Amino acid sequence: MATFINPFVDRGFKIIFGRDESKALLIDLLNDLFENEHVITDLSYLNVEMPADCTDSRTAIFDLKCKDKDGNFFIVEVQNAAQSYFYERSLYYLCRMICDQDKPGDEWKFSLCPVYGIFFLNFKSGKTDKVRTDIVLADRSNGRQASNLIRQIFLEMPFFDKEEAECENGLDYWLYTLKNMEKLETLPFKGQKALFRRLEELAKIVNLNKKERMEYEECLKIYRDNQNTWDYAIENGFKEGKEEGIKEGIKEGFKEGRIATSREIAGKLKAQGVDIAAIMTCTGLDADTIASL
Q1: Rounded distance, CA 12 to CA 120, Å?
Q2: What backbone phi and psi angles, to 5 degrees, belong to 32?
Q3: pLDDT category, 230, cuts 50, 70, 90?
Q4: pTM as predicted
Q5: Nearest to 123, CA basis, from 48, 215, 226, 199
Q6: Beta strands of the chain (E only): which ranges?
Q7: Lesser CB count within 10 Å: N end or C end of the chain?
Q8: Domain extent listing, the chain
């Protein structure tokens, strides 16, 4: 039995970073990400759902969405399953948040607030060979940043391979701890970061209340089932020795396994009285599907 929750499970990530009692942890993580650029002193959590603009457009639901006292917006997401167009999808969501700042009337002078997207990827995207990819709007000829309105930071965790003794700064401490948390019996770096004592307390499974424990365990089941489905699909694809085999294995595995498992778990959560938004986050199912169960 693990001592600490898995932070790459949606519910686990929100337990660590998405509550008022854990706000200081999120602020510390963001400050380590933006070291020597600007300092965040306070955050307010916002509704994670961005409704569709019209009946045939997309509703966006984020893991975390917040705003600092200077008006900067932050989306923080964990993504476990590889997606071909995740970089593009994340840009679409940030653009939606820029457009959402539109105000009616002739007096508005496009006084937009910056939107930052921080995306923890538990897979290799194929677009880079490093841990951190930092995308800004820049002048192509000289590389100088032209605007701070949109910024994407991708952290591809499989590339982070430092051992505990090799970690040198605050971001290293965070990435090492998050990547290895589920395997640890006690958290490291408490001497370097006093806040990690609070992190250790919040992340212990025994400290979860009954509702949190139930939601976390259901989300953990989906996470493990998806990982097993993914591994099975790739393994069988390679056995056939064809790229097409990999694609078909993934397609069929997720179609038959993930959806069925998600529906089963959604039904259980619904029966327990868990709200629809939480069930959508845990299972990835839409509200209409959940309502029909």
Answers
A1: 14
A2: -70, -35
A3: low
A4: 0.76
A5: 226
A6: 43-45, 49-50, 60-61, 64-68, 73-79, 115-121, 132-138, 145-156
A7: N
A8: 10-207, 210-292
